[in-house]
Each structure stands twice: as structure tokens, then as C-alpha cells.
Amino acid sequence: MKKRIIVALDTDSPESAMATVASLSGEVGLFKVGMELFPRGGPELVGRIRGAGADVFLDLKFHDIPNTVAGAVRSAAALGVKLATVHASGGKAMLSAAAGAAAGTGTTILAVTVLTSLDDADLSSIGFSLPTEKAVERLAGIAVDAGIGGIVCSAKEVAAIRRMVGKNVVLVTPGVRLPEDSAGDQKRVVTPSEAIRAGADYIVVGRPITRAADPVAAARKFAADMARAIK
Ligand code: C5P
Fold first, then answer.
1. Residues 6+ apart with CB under 8 A from 28
2. Would you give the DSSP letter of residue 88?
3. How far is 189 from 203, CA to CA, in rounded Å?
4. For a tag on the chain, would you pick the N or C end, based on fewer CB atoms within 10 A?
5. What is the mean pLDDT of each run of 10 residues along the chain (231 residues)?
6. How many C-beta atoms surround the C-beta of residue 90 within 10 A?
7. How many whole angstroms from 154 Cα to the centroid of ligand 1?
8. What is the DSSP string of 65-80?
9. Which domains, and CATH codes, for the chain?
10. Given 2, 3, 32, 61, which residue is catalytic?
11. pLDDT of the residue at 153
């Protein structure tokens, strides 16, 4: 189960990120490098994390014309990252280009559907006519039809998306907390075992592990809770 934990390195400091990696690399499966950290640490940091024996989830949410996204995906795959994100709202041609560029590499592309910071009113204001839940399903369907290997989905969406896409699509779920953790700014959280039972392949956890007094103990509690889902 521990291999199914992705720790979010939400920091602007490569050194602080590497300290987290050093203490947790045997305890979790992947580390998520996103838009805050990558511009500081770059490919070198990705190489250092991989050198520590961990896999990398490069969360840069590519969204551009198909040719440019295909190039971005090739560059990400060349770094040896295991997972990388694109926006599903880039449309079918962009998603197919991303999937094609990742084919045959060890990189699985995940599509982000609707950001959880957007509600129905936000979608309507930018001209999206569907309610959020339906928009998520529509975008996930387009992504999977285009050959994208996985979807990032909130705790609220994971069960419905799993029913829709079947077994062979990788589902990654953030917003996960142990019962004793504070939710922080997450509005809707699930426990690790709930996320796994609902169909998540991986959970993304940031602060409850990285800011714990004992991050190793916290990671082990997450893995133990996930294991309860399959008992
Ligand atoms: O600290 P915490 O566990 O809340 O961090 C969750 C991570 O997952 C952060 O990197 C956050 O950006 C990411 N995420 C999220 N909700 C989404 C998509 C990504 O919390 N819908």
C-alpha cells in the first residue's frame, strides 16, 4: 500500500524538498513536483529524487495547442517521470497528442478535469454550460477516449469516475486525511481507506505527512489505513 502514496512536495525550496524525500523515500511510492517547486529545482531536482530511489509525479498541468503539449510531454517523459498531468479541457486533439507522445515511454499521462476551486457559477461565468459533476464526467470521458492513461479526481468524484472508466485507467485522488488530521483548506476530505475503496489507485497527501512531527510515522499510518480497505 505504501507504494500507492504520493507525497506532495509543496515548497519552493529544493533543499527542503530533498530533506522530505530523504526521510520518506522508503515509505511512499512517489513525490509530486508541481508548479511551485519545478521552476526552482528543475530537471536536476527530478533527477535527484529519482536518484534517491523514488518515482516522480510531475504536476505541471500542460494546456496548450496539441503540438506544444506533445513536445512538453516528450520533455517530461525524457526526465523519467512516472506520472505527468495535462488539462482535459485542452480538448480531444490535445489529449490525443499528449497520449501519443507518452506512448512507449514509462510516463503515464493523467488528465485534470475541473479544478476543485471552481463551482457551477464559475463554470457558467466562463461559458461552460454543464454543472460541475457533469463537466467532470464529460472531460474524463473525452480524455480516456483520447488514450489518456489516468485521471486526477477529487474524493467526491472517484467512485463515479471508476464506474465510468473501468479498471484500466489510473485514478489519483487528493484531499485525503486520517480521521485525526485537520482538513486544512480542503473542503471535502476522505480517509485513505475510503479513497481506496472508492477506486483510487493512488492518494496524494501533502501537509498531514510533510508537516507531521514525525513524517515517517504519519506515512505508515496512511499505509495502514489504506490496507484496511482490502481486508
Ligand atoms: O496538503 P494537502 O494534503 O492538502 O495537499 C494536497 C495536494 O494535492 C496539493 O499539492 C494540492 O495542490 C493537490 N490537489 C488538491 N486538490 C485537487 C487537486 C490537487 O488538493 N483537486
1. 2, 3, 5, 6, 7, 54, 209, 219
2. G
3. 12
4. C
5. 97 98 97 98 98 97 98 98 98 98 98 94 95 96 98 94 96 95 84 97 97 97 95 76
6. 24
7. 9
8. -HHHHHHHHHHHHHTT
9. 2-230 (3.20.20.70)
10. 61
11. 94
Task: Give the binding-site residues of ligand 1, using a 6 Å CB cut-off.
Answer: 8, 10, 32, 34, 116, 152, 154, 174-175, 184, 186, 204-208
Residue nearest to ligand 1 atom 15, measured at CA: 174
Give per-residue pLDDT as tens, 136-146: 999 999 999 99
Q: Ligand 1 pocket test: which of 7, 10, 122 has the largest number of ligand atoms within 8 Å of its C-beta?
A: 10
231 is catalytic: no
Averaged pLDDT of the chain = 96
Cβ–Cβ under 8 Å, residues 113 and 152:
yes
* Phi and psi torsions of 186, nearest 5°: -75, 130
Compute the distance between CA of residue 142 and CA of residue 98 in angstroms, rounded to an integer. Answer: 13
Q: Please provide residue 175's backbone torsions phi and psi, each rounded to the nearest 5 degrees.
A: 75, 40
Answer yes or no: are the C-beta atoms of 54 and 28 closer than 8 Å.
yes
The pLDDT assigned to 156 comes to 87
The residue written with cell numbers 496548450 in the block is 64
